[in-house]
Automatic annotation (TrEMBL):
Gene3D superfamilies: HAD superfamily/HAD-like
Keywords for this protein: Hydrolase
Secretion signal, residue range per the UniProt entry: none
NCBIfam families: HAD-SF-IA-v1
Keyword flag RNA-binding: no
Entry annotated with the keyword Hydrolase: yes
Protein name (Swiss-Prot/TrEMBL): Haloacid dehalogenase
Pfam families: Hydrolase (PF00702)
InterPro entries: HAD-like_sf (IPR036412), HAD-SF_hydro_IA (IPR006439), HAD_sf (IPR023214), S-2-haloacid_dehalogenase (IPR051540)
Length: 213
């Protein structure tokens, strides 16, 4: 019996309308100052419960008042442009009405978490990388959201159908990672030829499968 549905956030439930890449700009500023910043820098930014300014300070990036204001404006521009996909709102409403427990599991930096929660409030679980100190496909994130939802990963014996399903736009993090943790993962491809092209299609598949069990 399918009990819970987990969604990725960016690219799945929400999109950025005006991408300004504030953390990338912060890293550029650090490199201009001679710091040897690597891909591990972004990993740190996504696994720490701190503001952009605090992350810069931790990395040794000196921000003048004018540069801090500039980065803050760039960040606010991006945050204010985040919007839910229409099909995401419809699919979650449909699945919640059908009685499924719903959660979000996502890799993101601290400022983005409250925006996601405000767009999709009162769900059964939220697992964000900046809160847990690790990123998908680390199984800690999948287990955390399942614990909050009150569901246990693991496949049912009938037809290999999972008790918990997850969908997102990353094959590695939203399909393969969950499957390794006992969650049936699905890949969302918002393209005409994608196997699952939108979340309304996914919700219909879930409802059909749940009626067949």
């Amino acid at each position: 019996m399918i009990e819970g549905i987990i969604f990725d956030a960016f690219g799945t439930l929400v999109r950025i309308g005006q991408r300004t890449n504030p953390y990338r700009e912060m890293m550029r500023e650090g490199r201009r100052q001679g710091l040897a910043l690597t891909s591990d820098t972004m990993h740190f930014a996504m696994t720490t419960n701190q503001s952009l300014a605090a992350v810069a300070s931790q990395l040794g990036i000196a921000l003048t008042l004018s540069k801090l204001k500039e980065l803050s404006l760039v960040l606010e521009t991006e945050l204010s442009s985040i919007q839910p996909f229409p099909d995401a709102v419809e699919a979650i409403g449909l699945l919640r009405k059908a009685g499924f427990r719903i959660g979000i599991c996502s890799n993101l930096a601290y400022p983005y978490g409250p925006i996601v929660k405000s767009l999709f409030p009162n769900l059964d679980g939220y697992a964000f990388s900046y809160q847990l100190g690790c990123v998908k496909p680390d199984p800690v994130l999948y287990q955390s959201v399942c614990n909050q939802m009150g569901v246990q990963p693991g496949y049912c014996l009938t037809d290999g159908v999972g008790r918990v399903l997850m969908i997102g736009d990353s094959q590695r993090c939203d399909r393969d990672g969950p499957r390794a943790a006992g969650i049936m993962g699905f890949h969302l491809e918002r393209r005409p030829h994608g196997q699952i092209r939108d979340l309304n299609q996914f919700a219909s598949l879930v409802l059909e499968q749940s009626m067949d069990i």
